[in-house]
Amino acid sequence: MFETEKEANLWLAELSVSVAHGKKLVAERMLFSDYFWQAYQVFKRRSVAATTEDTYRYTLRYIKKVLPKVTMRDLNRSLIQGFFNALSDKLSHETQRKMLSQIRSVLADAVDDGVLPHNPARRITLVADPNRTKKPDAKFMSREDFFKIQTFLFDYKYRLSDVNRMALFVITQAGLRAGECLALRDEDLDYESNTISVTRSYDSLHETIKEPKTPSSIRQIQIAPEAMLVIHKWSMEHRKWLFQRGIPNPENLLFLNNQGELPRSRGLNAAYHQLQIRLGIEAKYSTHTIRHTLASLMLDNKINIAYISKFLGHSSVQITQQYYLSMLPDRMEQEALKAINVTSIAK
């Protein structure tokens, strides 16, 4: 494994030279697990989010567990298929699909570099235990449960230790991604127009603030005046609390905690799970589910899908349509009935 990115790039340069001179032996003898992680560091790391890096680490862990001694030279389709067969009763179909996509991508790089003659992960069949596969409706919270969470967060009396809960409040009002929310500063809030400007995102894995996911993620979101009052009160109190404790906050970050740090996305999800349990909600939804739920509620209220797409920061209306309409079969059935009525009248 590499200690630094410089070492990883040096490995890539040496590998390219070796392959160019017909010396593939070193790469072929590498453990698949080592090659997978080193290729990730060289080709993928700079272009993926923190949560995506977590999934690569997750895949690496299973490669080490199931294929601990397999080298690049050993790899073939049967081994890769056997790897996924061994995981069929442990992981959901969606998790396996993501793992296969990552393995295919890394092995495609190996083919391009001349390490492998072909990609052994091209034609792999995934089989998963249906009981471990997340049902589509689990990505949406019911209107009643969501309202219960919104009400609790609106009425809650916040203290400095409640950074995670205040971040959850903002997400339930503005539908932000977790990283977008955690990167907010006081200057991103316009208390007169009740708008939140999204211009940055916090990568909690690398502890850096960077540009949002896509250019379309840069947007302004208008929220209810009463919600902005809650945020405004938090901003003033938060600044006072930090000053009293001698915690510097030169950027006026909205969610700096009492350790002088921004929360991690995992901590935010954990706080959300705890809140659900406290309110008697059985299923554990992630913070990203809030975005799905808000979008579904907007669709149910016949809000224009172009606005919903802009609200969520999607790169196109088509993405919003493909994702949310496919996840709302009842809504699609209703629209189909309307269409039938129109065509029958036309006759």
TrEMBL record:
InterPro entries: CB, DNA_brk_join_enz, Integrase-like_cat_sf, Integrase_catalytic, Integrase_recombinase_N, SAM-like_dom, Tyrosine_recombinase_XerCD. GO terms for biological process: DNA integration; DNA recombination. PROSITE patterns: CB, TYR_RECOMBINASE. Keywords: DNA recombination, DNA-binding. Residues 27-111 form the Core-binding (CB) domain. It holds the Pfam family Phage_int_SAM_5. Residues 136-337 form the Tyr recombinase domain. The keyword DNA-binding applies. One of its GO terms (molecular function) is DNA binding. It comes from the Bacteria. The keyword Nucleus does not apply. PANTHER family: INTEGRASE_RECOMBINASE PROTEIN MJ0367-RELATED (PTHR30349:SF41), PHAGE INTEGRASE-RELATED (PTHR30349). Belongs to the 'phage' integrase family. This is Prophage Lp2 protein 2, integrase. It comes from Lacticaseibacillus saniviri JCM 17471 = DSM 24301. The lineage of its organism: Bacteria, Bacillati, Bacillota, Bacilli, Lactobacillales.
